[in-house]
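The protein record quoted in full:

***
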Amino acid sequence: MIPLVEVPCNGCTACCHYLVLLDPSRGDDISSYETNEGPKGPSLKMVDGHCIYLKDGGCSIHDRAPATCRSFDCRLLYVDLPRSERRRGKATSDVNRDVLEAGRMRLGTLLSKTGPEGPVPMLRLRY
């Protein structure tokens, strides 16, 4: 199983409003989820614009979340998009604005605690 990325979500559920494609090659057991079949393949069922497994402000299947959820990191999504794309995404809703903002707000948590002189940034932002 794909290890769970350690993102300090602190109750944030912005990414739970994304379409989550299921991928058996990454360990997803499609039969264990409620799904929809779309043009890109099976995905977690969505209800009212969010994942059906979002309950009481949190993921009810966190311990068996699909590979996409386990490996998603809003901080890296924010960093990987060039600034012009982030601006365009915020302006046109091509990318979920809440997820971009969540990633931006958590950028400071992308630090390595193993550096010899304290925390060392793991990445450099492109502007």
Remarks:
- The chain has two domains: 16-72, 73-111.
- The chain has a mean pLDDT of 83.
- The first helix runs from residue 67 to 71.
- The radius of gyration is 16 Å.
